[in-house]
Amino acid sequence: MTEVKIIKQKPVALIEVKEHLDSLLKEKKELNFRENKVSAYLHGFELLNLKETNQLKQELNEIEISRLKETHIIKIIDLLPTDLESLKLILSGENLTLKQEDLNKIIETVKKYA
């Protein structure tokens, strides 16, 4: 069996995946089974547009919370938590502890877009 080697990992926002699938659909006229499943899943979400996603990502990076990595930022953008409880729930699966003031900064930034 062929061994798969991961060369690079990069977190990708759901809107980027959705737009990529939409462009594939225009090119190929038809998506395969897996692409159709992912597309159907993504169309069930209310997502920011690509411009808003990039602006929010930039604003979250500008907060300069050293422990907040790109993976965390993408999760926050995809789920858009508007209260502390939701944000804590999203980050609970990560090995990440943030100060209350940092959590509040994140929530205030996200609320501008939600």
Describe the structure.
The chain is mainly α. It has 6 helices and no strands. The termini are far apart. The protein has 2 domains: 11-47, no CATH class; 50-111. The chain has helices at 14-28, 33-42, 50-62, 70-79, 84-91, 100-111.
Residue share in β-strands? under 5%
Q: Could you tell me the number of beta strands? A: 0
- Tally of structural domains: 2
Structural class determined from secondary elements: mainly alpha
Overall, the morphology is globular
Q: Taking Cα atoms only, what radius of gyration do you get, to the nearest Å? A: 16 Å
Largest sheet: none
Number of helical runs?
6
Terminal-residue CA separation: 46 Å
Q: Helix amount, in percent?
A: 55-70%
Q: How would you spell out the order of helices and strands?
A: HHHHHH
The low-pLDDT segments are none
Question: How would you summarize the topology of this molecule?
Answer:
Elements (H helix, E strand, L loop, with lengths): L13 H15 L4 H10 L7 H13 L7 H10 L4 H8 L8 H12 L3
Helix pairs in contact: 1-2, 3-4
What structural keywords apply?
single chain; 114 residues; mainly alpha; 2 domains; 6 helices
Question: Would you summarize the structure shown here?
Answer:
This protein has 114 residues and is mainly α. It is built from 6 helices and no strands.
